Protein 1
Amino acid sequence: MIDETKLQGFLQKAFGEMGAAMSAALVVIGDKLGLYKAMAAAGGPISSAELAARTGTMERYVREWLAAQAAGGYVAYDSATGRYTLPPEHALCLADDTSPTFLPGGFQVIAAVMKDEPKIADAFRTGRGVGWHEHDPGLFEGTERFFRGNYKAHLVNEWLPALEGMVARLDRGAHVADVGCGHGASTILMAQAFPKSRFVGFDYHEPSISWARKAASRAGVGDRVTFEVASSSRFPGTGYDLVAFFDCLHDMGDPAGVAKHVRTTLAPDGTWMVVEPMAGDSVEDNLTPVGRMFYAASTMVCTPASLAQEVGLALGAQAGEARLREVIMAGGFTRVRRVAETPFNMVLEARP
């Protein structure tokens, strides 16, 4: 027997999901065309004609976009005046790319993985992996934009100070490797905070390394940051005071092998900082809004990336601390402790 109440409840939920999915494209458009920034700069109610004039866009498109944004609760609508307002709290998330809560990069990621759906569906059938480099380029930029605010809010002020004695070493001048650095946001933030230290970012994805080099030059830290193309299991150098992995260990095909390599590159008293998505140790621990997002990203990006590499352990983005600890200690580390966390990340300190 079909429970009609449950059926209608699920249909309502699914229709809400469809609206949210369609709206993801509208967020990308609003970000790309400067619609959110123009609304924030208006400092109050604005009409579709005024917003179109400020952004050099067509009023009829803007009018429909605004109505959709109001229906989704992204902007407020005043029926008496026919004008729309971007609340300041929403502006922090949609218009201020320096904010730790800036979201459009995440919507870029959603747009990119939707484009890649045929590849992932085919991988379901064949069991093969899909490498990071095989994805739509919007994934690379969106990931950097989405993660940068979180790193800016926590990396220098909370995560590095939580590592035993690390800030003092960085202040004196340390040798640091940032592995899986992507576009280099984390590397550059550390270099800006610790001018006496030297940083090298490694990533196997050559276009990302090229982007990172330009970003370092624009940030004025090119004198103490270098970026090189290298894999996580073969990156060069020894005597590192700190090796950092930001949201990438679970993407590795052979994370235990990577851990062994990291161990050989550290100074005798060096530290491996592993930043991973927040997760409990069981599926039921992660049946939350954050877990839902991370499981979805893991299905579309992280697990396929691991399966495209040697070993293909496929930890997934919700591996949990216990599983991560096993992998790290399999690489020869004897001390692993969680030193910091946010609603979205856990930070592990691994010592030889």
Protein 2
Amino acid sequence: MLYERSHYRIMGDRSLLIELGDNISPEVNRRVRELSVMLGQNPVEGVLETIPAYRSLLIIYDPLITNTRVLQHQIEDLQKKSEVIDIPEPKTVEIPVVYGADYGPDLKWVAGYHNIDVEDVIQLHTGTTYQVYMIGFTPGFPYMGELPERLATPRRETPRTTIPEGSVAIAQRQTGIYPVESPGGWHILGRTPMKLFNPLQVPPALLEMGDLVRFFPIEKGEFEQWHQ
């Protein structure tokens, strides 16, 4: 549900969390993006960084310059003046994926959990256009939704200590891609040869909040050719 008025929460001695709703939805996430764009276009004195998430925006500020009470008033004033906020049109990115085998060790388990064929899992996963709700966990990791209800799957009971770079995974009704080798508790369906994060590029992350993503299946040979 989208809140009629934003909720403000103090987070430590230099952070203010603004919550715009109580659930994960495109509508709430759009409001987060609008607020993020608004603050980017109208810099507020003392604000050092803004970090958007599913349903909230975290503001990091300099406590020697401003405080939470002043920030709240300034942000509310900006929201009243900015009735219409133009946010950038999302880009659509198509992501190739090798599903199953060593690339997707959980594909068969997910199919068994839902009592469907492996091909059905792939079709369900590739048949949806996903919105990038936020970037987090590791640099460039996109949290995307929503998975089809038939593919909603709980997290693994025991997380893996190492997941290969490029692994495409699901948990609950979210799907994501591991940009770097890291631990993780999501079910791995496959792997993409695309690089999601490069600190030497501008911007360093392939995907950003608001982007749209579609997956399409490729064969193992195509994966190897991509790398070569």
Protein 3
Amino acid sequence: MDIGKKRRLNRIFGKDGKSVIVPMDHGVTIGPVEGLADMQQTIDKLVEGGADAIVIHKGTANYVDTGKMGLIIHLSGSTRVGPDPNWKVQVCSVTQALKLGADGISIHVNMGAPQEPYMLERMGKIVDEASKYGLPLLAMMYPRGPNIKSEHDPEHVKHAARLGAELGADIIKTNYTGSIESFREVVKGCPVPVIIAGGPKTKNSAEFLRMVYDSIQAGGAGVSIGRNVFQHKNPTAMVKALKAIVHEKATVEEALKILGEKE
């Protein structure tokens, strides 16, 4: 592996090869929702909690201090009110991400969407450019489209994860499939680290942490979770709870104690 890429990956992943990443790129898609109105205030809470890395857009990266967290610049964008929200277009260049001090970049591909061919073509070009600079790529790979009945279907998720790896991604972010057994198949079929997305905000912390715990038991390499972290009443404590599960092999019950909650 390129020494530059190795160093950057070490700033995103812990020594155990796992990572707690908090994406805060939602402002492009859904606007300044709760937890994103004051980006620096929320980021400070994530830094205090010890998150490994953060995902933000280039504009935000110009004015926030991300502390010791690894910086991942998101290159994809679309809005929920656009003509096709599932069509993610490139909104930042690899070189611009490097100028902003990025440790990595991320892109979003919706497998099964009508514009899938365009997104795959862009991904191929971005991978080639990123490799020139030793810049790690996190690919958010989701099965979404007319032929996808469930975004959590193990067969579709397994395919999406493998697709991202086949095209050169260094890290795959995708949906949890609902069980340890099925997600183990996703991990088994993907030659690069797989981390899970959080999806919509869950009903309670126990349900959320159970999903995270199960994904780690299945061989997952961590999480890239936004709303269930930055919209939690105590984002700092939530990051610490996630770190306990991902890095310290804590149980759900032990993680809940960090939050001061019960199952």
Protein 4
Amino acid sequence: MMFNELGLSAELLRAVSEQGYSQPTPIQAQAIPVVLKGGDVLAGAQTGTGKTAGFTLPLLQRLSANAVAGNGFRPVRALVLTPTRELAAQVSESVTTYGKYLPLRSAVIFGGVNINPQISLLRKGVDILVATPGRLLDHVSQKTLDLSKVEILVLDEADRMLDMGFIHDIRKVLAVLPKQRQNLLFSATFSEEIKQLADRLLNKPVLIEVARRNTASETVAQVVHPVDRERKRELLSLLIGTNDWRQVLVFTRTKHGANRLAEQLEKDGLTAAAIHGNKSQGARTRALADFKSGKVRVLVATDIAARGLDIDQLPHVVNFELPNVPEDYVHRIGRTGRAGNEGEAVSLVCVDELKLLRDIERLIKHDVPKVVIDGFAPDPSIKAEPIPNGRNNRAPRAASGPRPGGDRPSSRPSSRPRNAGSGSGGRRAGGQGGNYNR
């Protein structure tokens, strides 16, 4: 199938062609015609499959059919909610890119930056608004934003929003939206919480799944290197140096761990930067730009970066520490092997993490190959130690302080564990020893 067979307008086809695309991905081929018809959609697709264009293209076409002419005020007619600043910026960029020949205005708002320029922008009126939930509610409470004319609501990376405790914010947003609207829910994984949200939000939705749910892309080669916890950094530097990896995205569980690892890699002679929720938006933007340009060789990130980082042909992802939540493994390694390109996902696993590894393999329904690097075989005498802040000792969320993505934290614990990268929520390895090969 070609894009010109999907019923898109000449203006959209021109913009798509200028990006070098002629054939839609499977999620695009299935979602675009359904969204154009105006019905609700529940779509499941792995990261890197082009789902952003799968909803932005038909959304743009539906709004352009009766767009406001001239420079008059425009009410928000389409609202796209995302869990992180990076993903919001990515979606906004897609809206701008594909809508360049249409008479529509768009804007993106998120926390971590001054709210006043956003207020000025919203006063001029926009057709399409991309936002993170907390900052959106800030504008609603300050009456700088009217959502009473919204025709289309998109929840992008819905599973991640629930992981990060946004369910209460989502409910508040739904309460101020018109009852009659089109709803599009996109999620890379389907949990019971996602199903419950879909039941409340969607009206007779069309279910679209382009791959077996909760699976990693087949274009990603996965491998586990067993190693003692104290030798992980040494092994990581060796792998990067001896294999001449020029662009590596490395995941840690905590913000402090990301900062410490980036500093250690710099001492090893590797240009590195850290990106996480405590970094200012400017620092995060600079680190990502330097990584994309090649100025920074290693980007160390918490799970906030597992969604929204769209890096063309990223060759290597390394799990310096396994995530506490198995689904986050799928999202982490989904940063490579995107758009049909091949990628490699390496996990450095110590004895503390064997239960986490078993949980991941149970989720993806296959074992990940284990390869011991010469000189780094684990010491069998080392005993497993508990991983702090696991799922079994979850504590209520603090009532104040920044949330990943720059949004306000909820005053109540979420129904799912919080972003593992922030150091709260997830599974506990709790002294679970065992065998790397189960």
